[in-house]
């Protein structure tokens, strides 16, 4: 992506997914996001799990703020909360206009993500070099996965 590193900005948010949307609407949202992101030099990662979205987006501050205003107004999201935002030195998801994963129930991709997230926290060298927003993103993902797993067995 062609952005100057010193102008990079990122934002991590969490929201509740509207229960009325199905897989078709999510795929439509994803295609719309990829087109917008490609046109605006935005990259990121969106995870959906148990009717919650957690998303990390990065690009110019102006473009990220515009995108986030659109997200807050989108009927598919409610209770949209910024978890962290700020300037970054480099992109974490440089080649992904929008990586997406929807985890529904136990499956091999969900288990892989749990393993990946725990390895971030166990490998202190790798964790040390992450920017604060990336750390927050993975902490929220880890907490979401752990909380949902505990609640399933209550």
UniProtKB/TrEMBL annotation:
InterPro entries from the UniProt entry: Acylphosphatase-like_dom_sf, BLUF_domain
Domain BLUF span(s) in chain numbering: 8-99
Record GO terms (molecular function): blue light photoreceptor activity; FAD binding
Residue ranges crossing the lipid bilayer per the database entry: none
Domain of life: Bacteria
Protein's name in the database: Sensors of blue-light using FAD
Organism: Pricia antarctica
